[in-house]
Design brief:
With about 70 residues, this protein is mainly α. Helices cover about 35% and strands about 10% of the residues. The chain has 1 helix and 2 strands.
Length: about 70
């Protein structure tokens, strides 16, 4: 009886691990945006990551203005 319980537990763990691995490998990475330069070189487009509005607030206004 103890041997059957051990075999059942091992099979259950193997099933859970197998299911997790199949779903983990099924996901596809996000496509990276690239730009083709006039010289033919492909570079990553990171322009959207830097569009930020920076404002001066009270005590920090002495650090300068930002365009």
């Amino acid at each position: 009886m103890r041997k059957m319980l051990l075999i059942g537990a091992v099979c259950f763990v193997a099933l859970i691990v197998w299911t997790g691995l199949t779903f983990a490998q099924a996901t596809k990475p996000a496509a990276m945006k690239t730009i083709k330069l006039p010289n033919g070189q492909d570079v990553f487009d990171i322009s959207g990551e830097w569009d930020v509005l920076v404002e001066n607030y009270d005590a920090f206004s002495h650090f300068g203005t930002y365009p």
